[in-house]
Each structure stands twice: as C-alpha cells, then as structure tokens.
Design a protein that fits this description.
N-acetyltransferase domain-containing protein; alpha+beta; plasmid; Acyl_CoA_acyltransferase; 9 strands; Aminopeptidase; 9-stranded mixed sheet
C-alpha cells in the first residue's frame, strides 16, 4: 500500500493528507481535461507532455517504469513517472538510482498560475517518495532528474545537487540526490 502524503492548503497553511496512488487512466484524463488548457494558457514547459502515451506505452509495457499520482478530495494534484533499473548515478560511478522521468503538479498548485496555490508540497512529496523507492530498491536514496527550465531553484531548495547542464538532454540541468543519511 502506498503512503498518505502531507500537503499544505494554500489558503490557510493547514496540513492536509492526500493519497499517493498508482497512476491510472483517471489521472491521465484529469491532465487532458482539467490541466492541459491552463498549462498552455500560462506557457508552462510541460504543456505538451503526453501522459496518455506515458501510461499506455511506457508504464504499462515496461517493467522498469512506474507511474504515480497524488489525489486530494478525488482530484488529481500531481503526476510522476520514474525509471527504476537503467540509470546510473553521476555522483557515484557504478551505482544505480531512481530516475524521475516526469513530475508535474496541477496548474492550481503552481504559484506562477494561482496565488496562493490550492495545495503546496506536491513536488516535495513526490521527491520524498522517489527517495523511499530508491531505498526499497537498494539504491541508498539516490534519485536523479533533468529539470525543466525555470524549476531549477525548486530542486536546489530540496537539497538536490546541481550537476550542470546536460548537452545530451536539451541542455537541461541535471540534479541528483546522493546517499540518504537518516538524522541521528
């Protein structure tokens, strides 16, 4: 069973619990029907992502791919796609990591689009879950991703290490968590 995650309601900063669930068609439909036009309207970098394709041809057909959604009050708040077997750490040669192949939060949760955002903490919750998944797989909490333009500061603030622009990946900045050390 997947964990509950804590998010912060933007209007009053109250902590609420949301469900982290496997990605299903309902979440893809929510992206297409409730998110996409807002993402286009506000010029967001993920406005053309094809979550239908990601679900049907990547997650459902590749054992090394996993998709997740965060739901609050039966509404999709975020989506994430991870790869669990093929990516290696750039910080520690020869070590595997969980690679986040896509992470998105609903338009109403983005401060750029709505102030205050309906819910805060969706991206943070996904990153924490990716680290947990990495630990479960024996990868010691290592997680990597390429940041969309304009989101680099978010990953920096999450304690990820900026490894630099990746010329093989449209010059997007690559970030990685190193080994997870639990506080004593």
């Amino acid at each position: 069973m997947l964990p509950l995650v804590k998010l912060i309601r933007g209007q009053d900063n109250t902590i609420v619990e949301a469900d982290l669930v496997e990605l299903w068609q309902k979440h893809v439909d929510d992206y297409a029907n409730k998110w996409k036009e807002q993402l286009k309207l506000h010029g967001q970098s993920d406005k053309f992502w094809d979550w239908e394709f990601k679900l049907e041809f990547i997650i459902n057909r590749q054992a090394n791919r996993e998709g997740f959604a965060i739901e609050y009050e039966d509404e999709t708040q975020g989506l994430m796609l991870i790869e669990t077997q093929m990516h290696g750490s750039r910080l520690v040669e020869g070590k595997r990591l969980v690679y986040i192949d896509g992470i998105a939060t609903a338009p109403w949760n983005r401060a750029y689009i709505q102030r205050p955002p309906k819910l805060k903490g969706v991206g943070t919750a996904f990153l924490a879950f990716a680290r947990t998944r990495s630990l479960e797989l024996g990868y010691e909490g290592r997680v990597g991703l390429h940041s969309l333009p304009g989101v680099e500061e978010f990953y920096d603030n999450q304690g990820m290490i900026d490894v630099g622009e990746d010329e093989d990946y449209d010059d997007l900045v690559y970030f990685e968590y190193g080994v997870f050390r639990s506080p004593v």
